[in-house]
Amino acid sequence: APPAPNPARGATTLRFGLPRAASIELALFDQQGRRVRGLVADERAAGEHTVTWDGRDEGGRVLPAGLYFVRLEVEGRAFVSRLAVIR
């Protein structure tokens, strides 16, 4: 599902579903393709999942307004959603 709310002023909810258990990696990237925050990197069970991103980078700093990309990698496939952050 797309990030919600989008655009975001603070926390954003990310939802995804898995048809079967799988190792996943969920991360956030800036417009230049730099990874700014890793959110999940582990095994998840089949079903619906929700992850909340607090608007901060790896160091705990609030990210500035801009366009970001949420990337979910599952079993060699990548799914990308755009996320606008406004301040």
Describe the model.
With 87 residues, the chain is an all-beta fold. 0% of the residues lie in helices and 57% in strands. It has no helices and 6 strands. The chain has strands at 12-18, 22-29, 35-44, 47-53, 66-74, 77-85. The chain has a 4-stranded antiparallel sheet, with no helix packed on it. The protein has a two-stranded antiparallel ribbon with strand order 1-4. A hairpin with a 5-residue loop joins strand 2 (22-29) and strand 3 (35-44). The two termini are 23 Å apart.
Q: Averaged pLDDT, please?
A: 96
The largest pleated sheet is described as: 4 strands, antiparallel
Percent of residues in beta strands? over 45%
Helix content percent band: under 10%
Distance between the termini: 23 Å
Total of helices: 0
What's the count of strands? 6
Order of helices and strands: EEEEEE
What is the strand arrangement across the widest sheet?
3-2-5-6
Radius of gyration: 13 Å
Q: What class, by secondary structure content?
A: mainly beta
Write the layout of secondary structure elements.
Elements: E1 12-18, E2 22-29, E3 35-44, E4 47-53, E5 66-74, E6 77-85
Antiparallel strand pairs: 1-4, 2-3, 2-5, 5-6
Keyphrases for this structure?
about 90 residues, mainly beta, 4-stranded antiparallel beta sheet, two-stranded antiparallel ribbon, 6 strands, about 0% helix
